[in-house]
Design goal:
- This protein is α/β, with parallel strands linked by helices.
- Helices cover about 35% and strands about 20% of the residues.
- The chain has 20 helices and 20 strands.
- The strands form three sheets. Strands 7-8-6-9-10-11-12-13-14 form a nine-stranded mixed β-sheet, with helices on both faces. Strands 15-16-20-17-18-19 form a six-stranded mixed β-sheet, with helices on both faces.
- Strand 12 and strand 13 form a beta hairpin.
- The protein is globular.
- The C terminus is likely disordered.
Length: about 525
């Protein structure tokens, strides 16, 4: 069967009759099942639960469905005897079904590998499929993916942001309109599957980037080393540019260790003065010293920090994202003027250092997307001395280093979430001088109301109240977006009812038991 799978490197290959099992039926799982069914494969979807719409559509596309518990391998899956299993990224390496697949010697793919194999369904005028740009990192992936795609489009290319950002890569490669480039955001989960590739035509991006690395998703990967190793796969087989963060040595090591196509260049970025082959900042001007002939003595101006500030993009970690995106866009020869124009019209997605209100000199900032300590550290660096709203599900990550490094400068901390004790303990050990307030409300609708009440009692003219939880949201909210929306709604509700200037009498560190 290996020889047949090795031959499946084109949409036009013979996929008919291939027994393909698809694990999971989210948006990614359905895109996999739909693609395989269109190719003529025999498709069985296995999932614990199915979205009603997808369940209705599966028989229409010609795929079968099995639902039930997956703590053991279903007999239906074993009897199906799949030639290949394509897993949705939620299935961790230690999942019982994944372990069975690997122990049985069955080929195991992710959706990204399948998309690469069939990327020639729609080709460009010269007969070649779209170039791929791969982006990962603990934080900043989505923003950088959107920035890069926006720059490419401004530069005259047909481009789209896809992957972990929302639109499955398989939907993009089957789009009849076609693209010149796909900017693919990849999670560490997707990259773990990408690291399993063994065929003759592995994913080989035009350019790739790991923006940064910090502990995250340790419960999925099992260790920090495994998480790092998964992230490093983003650089595998890169053809032109491996973009790395000069301020994050781990990303440089990834590039040094990567197996790339001969001639691929290492392109660094950071907020300092760039050397040749780098992008950086000189006296408030973002410059490119990588993609020009005379890069040893010259630089190309891309934009200025002042211009970025006008678009809400001047926070240091966002400037870093802009530089990374610019490097990726420049690797496809997007002119500096197009990059500047793209940035003028670009706006961050909601819940990313979003100012939701400024009332009597107090700025309320929603950075609910800061779902891990690394992201929250960037937020706190942008708003030192803030009243910090922190907590949620820590995903196995120790928050102590963040509290010791950034939390000591906070004016106060308001702690939410199911794992409050770990956060409060970190403050007592590493930032004992910071007042800590614990929100004990269990009902989702009450949490942010109480947060805003406490914050309003603490903050004064010139202060910032910063929601940067450093944790996932699923303990009390449906998503980080839901958490951010409820924070903004609570702010608006408080001040709409005329609570301006009121400072709560119970805004002291003993009020809620902390």
């Amino acid at each position: 069967m290996t020889s047949r799978l090795d031959a499946l490197t084109s949409w036009n290959a013979d996929w008919k009759g291939l027994r393909a099992a698809v694990l999971g039926l989210s948006v990614t799982g359905f895109s996999v099942a739909d693609t395989l069914a269109e190719l003529g494969a025999d498709v069985l979807v296995v999932t614990e639960k199915a979205d009603e719409e997808y369940e209705r559509l599966l028989p229409v596309i010609g795929a079968r469905l099995w639902t039930g518990p997956l703590d053991t391998v279903p007999g239906e899956l074993a009897d199906f005897a799949p030639d290949v299993v394509i897993a949705s990224p939620g299935f961790a390496p230690g999942h019982p079904v994944i372990s069975w697949v690997q122990e049985s010697g069955i080929a195991l793919w992710g959706d990204v590998e399948l998309a690469w194999r069939v990327r020639d369904k729609v080709v460009r005028a010269d007969g070649t499929p779209a170039d791929w740009i791969l982006i990962t990192g603990t934080n900043g992936k989505t923003t950088t993916t959107r920035l890069t795609a926006t720059m490419l489009v401004e530069g005259g290319l047909r481009a789209a942001p896809v992957g972990n950002i929302g639109t499955p890569v398989l939907d993009a490669v089957r789009d009849p309109a076609g693209f010149d480039a796909l900017v693919v955001e990849l999670s560490s989960h997707q990259l773990w599957y990408l690291g399993l590739q063994s065929g003759p035509d592995p994913v080989s991006p035009h350019a790739s980037a790991c923006l940064n690395l910090a502990d995250d998703h340790l419960e999925w990967h099992g260790s920090a080393d495994a998480y790092r190793d998964a992230k490093a796969h983003v650089y595998d087989h890169t053809r032109v540019a491996c973009v790395y963060n000069k301020a994050d040595e781990a990303t440089m090591r990834m590039v040094e260790d990567a197996e790339v196509v001969e001639g691929a260049r290492a392109i660094g970025f950071d907020l300092g003065v760039p050397g040749p082959s780098d992008l950086g900042v000189i006296e408030g001007i973002l410059v490119d010293r990588a993609f020009l002939e005379d890069r040893r003595t010259s630089a190309l101006e891309l934009t200025t920090v002042q211009e970025l500030a006008q678009a809400g993009l001047a926070a240091p970690h966002i400037v870093a994202n802009v530089l990374a995106a610019s490097a990726l866009a420049r690797s496809l020869e997007v002119p500096p003027a197009a990059i500047r124009d793209a940035l003028r019209g670009f706006r961050l997605d909601p819940h990313r250092i979003e100012v939701v209100a400024v009332v009597e000199g107090v700025t309320w900032v929603d950075d609910s997307k800061a779902t891990n300590p690394h992201a929250a550290a960037s937020s706190l660096a942008a708003y030192p001395g803030a009243v910090w709203v922190v907590g949620g599900l820590l995903k196995g990550v120790d928050i102590s280093e963040l509290v010791a490094g950034r939390g000591t400068a906070a004016k106060a901390a308001i702690v939410i979430g199911a794992e409050r004790d770990a956060v409060i303990t970190a403050f007592s050990r590493h930032a004992p001088g910071v007042p800590v307030f614990e929100v004990e409300a269990d009902e989702t609708e009450q949490v942010m109301t109480r947060v805003v009440e406490l914050a309003a009692g603490i903050a004064r003219d010139g202060d910032v109240v910063l929601l940067a939880p450093a944790a996932a949201s699923f303990d009390q909210f449906s998503s980080y977006a839901d958490r951010g929306r409820k924070f903004a709604a609570a702010v608006r509700e408080r001040f709409a009812r005329g609570a301006h200037g009121e400072h709560d009498d119970d805004a002291d560190p003993t009020a809620d038991g902390a």
